Amino acid sequence: MLNLRVNRILRRALIRFSPCSISNGEADDASFSTSSSKNPHGPEIQGDSSSQEDGHFGEFSQLGFRKSPALSATSVGDAEFGEIRNPRFNEIDELGEDEDDEEGSVTSGDECDDDFAVLKSVGKIPQSREDVGRFDVEEDESRHPLVREIGRLIGLRSSWNPKHEGQMRNLLRSLKPSQVCAVLRSQDDERVALKFFYWADRQWRYRHDPMVYYSMLEVLSKTKMCQGARRVLVLMKRRGIYRTPEAFLRVMVSYSRAGQLRDALKVLTLMQRAGVEPNLLICNTTIDVFVRANRLEKALRFLERMQVVGIVPNVVTYNCMIRGYCDLHRVEEAIELLDDMPSKGCLPDKVSYYTIMGYLCKEKRIVEVRDLMKKMAKEHGLVRDQVTYNTLIHMLTKHDHADEALWFLKDAEEKGFRIDKVGYSAIVHALCKEGRMSEAKDLINEMLSKGHCPPDVVTYTAVVNGFCRLGEVDKAKKLLQIMHTHGYKPNTVSYTALLNGLCRTGKSLEAREMMNMSEEQWWSPNSITYSVLMHGLRKEGKLSEACDVVREMVLKGFFPGPVEINLLLQSLCRDGRTHEARKFMEECLNKGCAINVVNFTTVIHGFCQNDELDAALSVLDDMYLINKHADVFTYTTLVDALGKKGRIAEATELMKKMLHKGIDPTPVTYRTVIHRYCQMEKVDDLVAILEKMILRQKCKTIYNQVIEKLCGLGKLEEADKLLGKVLRTASRSDAKTCYALMEGYLKIGVPLLAYKVACRMFNRNLIPDVKMCEKLSKRLVVEGAGNDNNMLLYFSLVSDNLQIPSEATRLSLR
């Protein structure tokens, strides 16, 4: 009886969730093929017959009882989502990368020449009949009531209940494809858009139109979410949706924005495997990726291959190459390419000239900029206009060339062009950065007198910042009052500049009071405002007030970065308030701030400086508990502190743990271990731990450092025992180590032992220094050991002739 009930429950579950196993173009059974043909948005189950149940019973294992494919035919990331067709919206999350997708994995060791292989397919792949133009959303559906309601429900996702999700599920089935695209594009957070895309894709009786995939790729191409873009591309293949070169292009752009240029180029390999013929647009993107990676030679070779297979470059192609030359400071070659463009059947545009002019402006080669402006108008008919002058002014002011920018400003006005307030403000900002406040004020008066471009808040804020940089805070305050009288309301940037000036002049408490009055003055502090105030209080030693500012900052939703937090932690530890620093770090961590291993190491170092080793070790334990992995600097700090206190056994265990975790020691780690172990006369333990460290990170002079340290500490006997390990290589560094040991013996008045070290050097074909030989021979005579004629002969051969004594001579001295 129980088995029958279980069987009935399982069959009902199968009927409810079975649409998960439907593939695009291939029905898993007869019932699904029938329903799919009737409903283009997805399968619909017809009835509840036992034959249907039996047909699905063999696929029950895919519902979670065994591992399903990483990407099913109708869903992406089943391992992530589970096999339930209608998952909760808040359960959907962006997937990680799947290395075993159907595109095939592309290893990092692939040669970049494989990127050129995609060009071989030009003209060999039959053109698809797919109407690519229909993927473009022509009508604006963003104001449609259904789209607005979907957006409202998505905005309530943090407080969703099943009723909200049911409403959105019903609305989804009423949306046209263009409206779904509008929902994706209307999201401020692209991650939410991708989550909605995945959620909708998992809904029963719904299937994305191809244009939705292209719209999702377009949204992701404007972000660094490259893995999500690649996932959508893979999902398109599994659904049998035709992929144009533009689809691969958008994935490549996303990788490029994320700085993963190698992975961006690997998209070409995926494109080749997919049998998609490249076009000019994706070729231009490829050249741009090569240029961004500073691989101009590869870009040139790709350009040549393009032309060989019949893809004619356009002005965008050559502009990418010109930018590549300029980025590598090869501006002469960029100008040559500019001159050759007409002969290649492609006339340059203003962007071609602006790119070169930007580099020349950076190098302050203004004469050449003027020549290019004349050439642009004379040879190619590109008349200089207001945009040209504005572009040059912004380029020059960006690189702090205010005088040259002023020259172009006057030249533009003489030719009848009107430079807008943005150009004027840029020059004012450049003048203020150079401390030329009187000239900046004259330029503002000129703006007021002309009337067509009166100064705005940005202009006045640049002057306020200039006064603050010079420490003239009172003039900055007066300027803020003048802004009010002229009808310009200072904004957050204006007040932040003033607060920065107050903090730089040691008036952080006044800045704090001003920020407390922000609501009355109708402005809101931002993260930069809080950071400025926090650093000002920190520099003045008001650490408690600085911590309070950080707490208030977090409360307002602004989270300081690890660097800012670390500066405050360092100040607290330097002031001896290490326990307060630890408490503050834990508080920041609990409130969601990004605390990294450097912050923990700072607190650990503070405890070590105060000889509170147990507290430092407890912080290390806290790191393990929250899955923050200590690095080599953390371990080195603790080992140094433990060695200083003579706790060598604990230091040894800590070093073993570090090596076991695969962390490579640094030269500082080696020096720290050597110094502390030699100081405690634990040479045997030192040698044992060094042998393990060498297995992780080679260090040829490690034993030389040990001997020299032992000599410096006067432990010559231990140093002499290790001399054999050093003389194995017989290098110059080994000779210096021997000199250190010989000097140590001479210093304590035992020249015979120094003489034996010299003999061992000769046996390894190392010639001692002449001064050392003379010094040693004199000491031997003084100590009464010079009666041995063999010794004197031995060292005279070296000091007089710089020759290695013969084998017979060396044997006679043994």
UniProtKB/TrEMBL annotation:
* Name the record gives this protein: Pentatricopeptide repeat-containing protein
Cross-referenced InterPro entries? PPR_rpt (IPR002885), TPR-like_helical_dom_sf (IPR011990)
Transmembrane region(s): none
A Pfam family: PPR
Q: Name one GO molecular function term.
A: mRNA binding
> Which stretches does UniProt call biased (Basic and acidic residues)?
82-91
Q: Where are the PPR repeats?
A: 244-278, 279-313, 314-348, 385-419, 420-454, 456-490, 491-525, 526-560, 561-595, 631-665
Presence of the UniProt keyword Repeat in the record: yes
Keyword Repeat part of the UniProt annotation = yes
Member of which family?
A: Belongs to the PPR family. P subfamily.
- Record's keyword terms, sorted: Repeat
Q: Where is this region: Disordered?
A: 26-61, 76-111
Top-level division of the source organism's lineage: Eukaryota
Q: Where is the composition biased (Acidic residues)?
A: 92-111
